[in-house]
## 1
Amino acid sequence: MAFVDETYKRAESERIINHHFDLAAKKINLDHEMWELLKVPFREIKVQIPLRMDDGRLEIFVGYRIQHSQARGPMKGGMRYHPEVNLGEIRALAAVMTWKTAIAGIPFGGAKGGVSCNPKELSPAELERLTRAFMSRIGDNLGPNQDIPAPDVNTNPQVMAWMMDEYSRRHGYTPAIVTGKPVELGGSLGRVEATGRGVMFVTREALKDKGVPMDGATVVIQGMGNVGGNAASFLHDAGCKVAGISDSKGGLHNPKGLNPRKVEVYKEENGTLEGFPEADYISNKELLELPCDILIPAALEGVITGGNAAGVKAKFLIEAANIPTSPEADEVLLDKGVYIVPDILANAGGVIVSYFEWTQNLQASYWEEDAVNRKLEKTMLDAYGHLKAVAQTNSVPLRTAAYAIAIEKVARAIRLRGFLHA
Ligand code: NAD
């Protein structure tokens, strides 16, 4: 294990995913060599990014790309711009991508990247220069058959367009280098909404399994960005009552239900949720403890902990965010009988449609949106059905079953290819 630099502050996210990995690896009697191999990322890249600010100052940012595994295909994962981005967090998120692509049954490995910065304080021109400088430093280790970035927290189709353009300057026009691009540049129809749509599909299946009607079920969602906002709209359209929703500063509560599209328009016009009519303005802490049927964290990691899990009143926890729940919280929630659909399945819709986007780019042939959505639904439902069966047969929670299935798939690919290609 000498390869791993232990001097960085160990992220809570890393502790959480190591716990899940160890639990599942033990269940499947994973051999020691494979155990060690799968815990160490394939490659870790850390770069300095000098940025000339609009006012003439030079600021130095730090960017990361962690490539966890390429055993099952090119590495795949989002790019996050956030002040709290650090090596441990990105390392954990990269491993999550390896397990997610495996459980979804798509031919990719896992990676994640990001820049430690506050994009809300950067002008559009600064954001573009930062993105291009970042891409120019990591691009040699990316490629349509190597590692393919996508959007994550605080990045979007425009950021992907700059990344693609910067890469294409050196390598020729290469739309397959990133997914989540604007449709005009080879993006897939349905990609922007895919993660939220997938969250709706698994929520619907989970409710069906437990005999809870979708119509009138109350849902509370933390975060209203790409994932939370789209999930809220799809669930609202499917008959659920969105009783609570939040952004980073606070949330809204109305037990009779909110119209998520109206909330989004209000936020766009006012820059805050505070003051939205017909709802109480509450804290994110209060939001997680609201009475509801379904709780959907859709913001950042580690928000449901041993400290607040006892206050969660939901019967279903659908993990739209990555790594939102600590192992201590898991235990409390499972004891209370909460049905938890783990992140590596619940939010896989985004990477599934990213796979469709990549295949469309490679073939230079584009699909209609209906076809994208139908294939997304089938892929998610197949993965969920298999996961449920494995969990039932082995009497383990869905999360442990999900990690076990994923680890076995990746380990098998490594044994077939040889250990140099992990
Ligand atoms: P986003 O930047 O579009 O939105 C993030 C949302 O979280 C915003 O509404 C923001 O206000 C809110 N937020 C930030 N900090 C918060 C805090 N401390 N408390 C409450 N809310 C807070 O990001 P996104 O793409 O929607 O990603 C959200 C989560 O979903 C992340 O965990 C991400 O890794 C995961 N995810 C995203 C995708 C995708 O396709 N974008 C796919 C799979 C998983």
Note: The radius of gyration is 20 Å.
## 2
Amino acid sequence: MLKIKNYINGELIEPSKKQYIDNYNPATGKVYSFIPDSDESDVELAVAAASAAFHSWSNTPKDERSRIMLKISELIEKNLERLAVAESVDNGKPVSLARMVDIPRAASNFHFYATGILHYAAESHSMEDTAINYTLRSPVGVAGCISPWNLPLYLFTWKIAPAIASGNCVVAKPSEVTPMTAYLLSELCIEAGLPKGVLNIVHGYGHKVGSAITAHPKIPLISFTGGTKTGAEIARVAAPMFKKLSLELGGKNPNIIFADCDFEKMIKTTINSSFANQGQICLCGSRILVERSIYDKFKKEFVASVNKMKVGDPADAASRVGAVVSKPHMEKVLSYIELAKEEGGTVLCGGHQIKLEGEFSEGYYIAPTVIEGLTADCRTNQEEIFGPVVTIMPFDTEEEALKHANSTQYGLASILWTENLTRAHRIANQLHAGIIWINCWLLRDLRTPFGGVKSSGVGREGGFEALNFFTEPKNVCIKIK
Ligand code: NAD
């Protein structure tokens, strides 16, 4: 069985203690490869390699950094099918989704920042005839990048690309639940001629590798995407060391549907925004708030469409819903469905594990689940479930919809359906979220700021926001009189 390797100082190497973790295929529930169980000694090697490479890489002309990154982007595109299959096997997502979304986006991330860095300029501030200020922006040094399992290569590259484009060297850790495409990326980086030490990938557990990266005195900057609890722990460790932090955390996003929406479009998109990637996207709308006058119609048509979604083998093109990522995660999601029932909810469809036949009989499948009859403040409607589970709730007024929408500790994304232009702008202005989609979902322009408010995070990714994060500004003031 394949043993994944760490990528340190340009080479694929075993973890120093030669220990490995089982890697499960969620579709079958079987171990299919081994992940390095690295520790702080491996992180130490990676930091040494990144520190040694920093002087040369940060002084490499932007054009050359860009050229190498474009080559990596091309290689991701060239290997699209192989990477998509690997992502699907590792994560349980339908291969069609990995083919259409995850892997093309990973290629775009490299392409976007390979070209973005060529257009990135710093400011100048003139004090009339007294002085001129100009701002230099320098890479910070060794950046720590830690990513989750739900969009493995997509989110991993979303951090690495701006970090290395702006001249930093990186010590990165993919999720130990989905390490495979990060490993394949390290092979592509070698093929593309990325100089050794510029990117180092250390595999393993969060409490060993992740915490060693967070606590390392030679890593002054951490870009993290994952759960809110982990983000709080990282902030606690990093704060006394004054590290720069970007934290992209959990969500409990509202999907607010007004009676005047384009009903057909809304239903089609709401199926996706509820259940794409088995509901395991931080941007999914898991609390669906529907204006009372169309509540019954919505409930009937939505549930009918959900019932038609095929749950099955992720490799089968007909499967709309694959496996959730792991057994513990499946158990967590199922426990939330039980909680919803205890809290007075009625399960309209789904609500249970699905046992498939043959080689998939031990896989982690959950029927897409719709629940009604819950209050806005119950735990089911306040806590992140991160699975194929949504609640639906009627509302009577705009004020009530807004109150419920803004009632959680989270503030990542909100979705709004209305054809009323003034209402759309009015509500967008009042929603507590970093990202608002009106009459659409997951439509992304990589130049726009990405991130959340409240417990959904600190800072923004995307566009020049990420290049600002991965650089330190230095103001130079010259007196001219
Ligand atoms: P997680 O917090 O458990 O793990 C994320 C990463 O952090 C993993 O690589 C893990 O090994 C590492 N880690 C764990 N403990 C650590 C520690 N003490 N120190 C340093 N690193 C540590 O999250 P997950 O279960 O992998 O991902 C799901 C979560 O991610 C959900 O809450 C979801 O909303 C969130 N998410 C947010 C966004 C966003 O952009 N805001 C995007 C995707 C996922």
Note: The first strand starts at residue 2 and ends at 3.
## 3
Amino acid sequence: MKFDALAGPNPVDRLTVVGQPHDRFEAKLKTTGTATYAYEHHGIAPNICYGYILGAGISKGRIKAIDTRQAEAAPGVLGVVTYRNAGPLGTGKFYVQHMLASLDVDHYHQPVAVVVAETFEQARAAASLVRIDYVRSAGRFDLGAQLTSAPTAPQMAFGGPTETHVGNFERAYSEAEFKVDETYTVPDQAHAMMEPHATIASWDGDNLTCWTSIQQMNWGTRDLGLILGIPRENVRLVSTFIGGGFGGKGTVQSDLVLAAVAAKVVRRPVKVALQRPIMFNNTIHRPKTIQRIRLGATRDGRLTAVGHESLSGNLAGGRTEPTTLSTRMLYAGENRMTRVRLATLDLAEGNAMRAPGEAPGLMALEIAMDEMAEKLRMDPVTFRILNDTKVDPENPDRPFSSRPFVECLRTGAERFGWSARNAQPSQVREGHWFVGLGMASAIRGAPIARAGARVRLDRNGLLTVETDMTDIGTGSYTIVQQTAAEMMGVPIDRVVAKLGDSSFPETPGSGGQQGAASVTAGVYAACMKLRQVVAQRLGFIASETEFVAGEVRFGNRNVSLARAAADSDIVVEDSMEFGELSRQFAIQTFGAHFAEVAVNAFTGEIRVRRMLAVCAAGRILNPKTARSQVIGGMTMGVGAALMEEMAVDTRQGFFVNHDLAGYEVPVHADVPHLDAVFIDEVDPAISPVKAKGVGELGLTGVAPALANAVYNATGVRVRQYPVTLDKFLDQLPVVS
Ligand code: MOS
């Protein structure tokens, strides 16, 4: 089925199941510990053994010699895999990292060996007996030191130009009456998802099955095939449940590759998990950015010049953090310039994490907007409303499909009690605490991609939907059930959703907040086909047949849906393909974030007191799972604003705090009640289901809202994330 004209009325609009706050079907499994994660498929083979990955002990250089003899002789050891016996290993399409491919060491904790043994403990013990001599060479680890030497970025992550120019930015900026010119930094950050990367790999002749934890099945089979040099058709991936990914499990990491390689070498199924301390330097992360924002405005608050330049670093061939994405679309302004640049660094690969581009980009832009509003003596909400745009500012012929941005701002300001804010910083005291309010805008793309589904109707009227979409803790199972139930006119408990298996019809999976929009469109397509086949079997005219309350109605006849499959199951498969609408329209999601913080006047301790997100993302498929996603995003925003940073040892070249003791993320005591509300809208330009993703929208804009709140509380502007007390304590107003 092709989607190439604005969606009209269709069965999803009934909203008897879609749009309702259904509980997740797997909630009980997860809360009782019976949901099976990658490492827990104990029953798949009797003779599973364990692989333990050894990461490089240097950051840059070459392996001079590996001595595996002692490890091989250790109790229980079945084999030691190194570049010598791994066979040729290539790279996938989305990541550039190499593993066991040669003697070269590109970054710290790059895999250099996998020890395989009967038990995990034996593998781990033997790994300590592998002796490796290295020759170090000089590396580049400090992004700041590359500021002047970085070449123009060869490639923007996720496509798009590395530079954009509209009007004459430099002239407009130099002539502007009011100016902001500041540089902001967002540090290297880790996904820190709960479930570590883990895989069980099992070969059957040339065919490989992996029980793993991966967000995007289609990228996974493609990249694993490329790395191993086998056809992707020979690879089957299964990820039934995923304990968070946040971009870190987009495609193939070392657990998956090395479990597959090790299983081939020892001729048994092999299980590999990445221990938490190796994850930070071994896998991907959000790379640090240094971002310069220049804004020019007239006295009455209209932006005339919007400039955003950003530098990130990566391994050779790696991608650039696309921080300028949101700056290109969020505000009006006739003269604009954005530019991203890339430096080569010898740290682990930088790649997709938690709203790549938009999240770190808005962390800079939205502080700059706060700074400009203050210079203009204008309320930050009013300033943003004044600079709203109805068309894509870089392509004035392209309208937004829907842009209730001002509504988000107004609704948020009203619900949060924004008018009570004192615009003068550090004026509000409650005992030992300074209290401040801050806000920021949110914008996040709404990509969508071809998605398929297979639907089976059986003689009991039970529907089974199969798609390779994954559920990374987001509620995918439930919205798939809801969509099929609505389309076929049955209650949600008549639908079984089977996800996370690459042998099912292809979707883009969970990434870039495109999963919900894409998969529900695929389920729509398959169900439209099923409705036709059912009508046909019953001798009805499909276009005049209704599917309501478990019944199929045509004229004055009505029969149960199950009847259509009385003789044999009906199985149909279809996919939704997307045409030109995303080129005709700018399709985005919008939001506004508000935060209240208290900052201890003596110690600088920051407590988040309350937060509100107002989100617009088309039709909300399930307000309960959508809210869960948004408050999850807001929690990540608390981390990004106040805690998260991988500290780089710029001499040795690695992330020092590579575990959850040293890498701080918000815990329950750090997060107050979070309020998330949705604007009531549909977007007929995205798909027949009219819904967009919300996961990453819930995060973008959160961190700068908190940073602005800390400024409002203290009067000290911190432009280097995370906003920690060491950066402002000595500048706090003196109080008694
Ligand atoms: Mo997301 S960082 O696109 O999984």
Note: Residues 183 and 615 are 28 Å apart (CA to CA).
